[in-house]
Specification:
Largest sheet: 6 strands, antiparallel
Helix content: 40-55%
């Protein structure tokens, strides 16, 4: 059985969902998975990243995301050094601001991990020396806030983490790797959905944005996101409607129209299917 690292053993006792761990050099650890996710930035040396099924060569500047349920370890290490940024994706507000509108964000955090085996790690983010220096500066700022834990550190550390994620996402968007560009095209379609969830959006429109054939786009999207593009759009609309139901007293019909549903009855059916409660019952839980 593959051991799972527990949040309580790695995160601060106050429960803040971000930790910076430096490994210089990385020591043998053994195949493991986590209750959290992590951003890995290779800062020196070389080695192999293994998943239990595959292995991928690592070099300076390689940057990738490990989901909590994905086993991994490092082998054949030759002065391999790295920075791990551990975070709890449930607790950390990755949906803040317009982060989700960046194609590189979706490519780095969702698409590349899902396609890693198929692409044999060739669509990973590879930072240039200048990008690596800037990334490590942002990590230093984040770590400083986490170490000092002065009043307000939570807001400052959250801002620093978002700044790092945004910078890495922008770096991915600049990739010239053909396989990375393919993921970015899917990321473009996801970003379009995020930015325009209240507007009428057709499948043909998403296919055109992706630059792929209709059949290939649908298959790639479903393989990566686990659902169809239209169902994903409905999920986004329900998520936004849930937020408005929790945080405002606006009429339910008005909320339905604002998030892109033209029929309030259809909205109620979709909401119940997704949440298990009617919009009115859901709102009562928070008022």
């Amino acid at each position: 059985m593959i051991p799972k690292l527990k949040k309580q053993d790695w995160f601060h006792e106050d429960g803040f969902p971000i930790v910076v761990e430096r490994r210089d050099p990385q020591e043998p650890f053994g195949l493991h998975c986590h209750e959290f996710s992590e951003i890995v930035i290779i800062t020196g040396g070389k080695g192999l990243h293994i998943t239990g099924e595959d292995s991928y060569e690592l070099s300076v500047g390689d940057t990738f995301v490990i989901g909590g349920d994905r086993p991994h370890d490092y082998l054949n290490m030759d002065q391999l050094s790295l920075v791990n940024i551990l975070f709890d994706p449930i607790e950390f507000p990755m949906s803040m601001a317009d982060l989700q509108s960046l194609p590189g964000f979706h490519a780095l955090f969702t698409l590349e991990p899902a396609w890693r085996k198929r692409h044999q790690f060739t669509s990973r983010l590879q930072l240039t020396p200048a990008e690596l220096v800037e990334s490590l500066r942002l990590v230093d700022d984040l770590e400083c806030e986490l170490n000092d834990r002065k009043p307000g550190f939570g807001a400052m550390a959250t801002a620093a983490m978002l700044q790092l994620i945004t910078f890495l996402s922008r770096c991915y968007s600049l990739s010239r790797n053909p396989k990375s560009k393919r993921l970015l095209r899917i990321g473009d379609s996801i970003s379009h959905l995020q930015r325009n969830l209240a507007q009428p959006i057709s499948l043909d429109e998403l296919v055109e944005i992706s630059g792929m054939s209709r059949r290939n786009f649908i298959r790639t999207f479903e393989d990566t996101m686990g659902t169809s593009p239209i169902n994903y759009l409905i999920e986004l609309r329900i998520r936004e409607a849930s937020r408005l139901l929790r945080t405002t007293d606006r009429p339910i019909t008005e909320i339905a129209f604002e998030v892109g549903f033209s029929d309030s009855n259809y909205f109620s059916r979709q909401f119940r299917n997704a949440v298990g409660l009617s919009p009115r019952e859901y709102r009562k839980q928070f008022h």
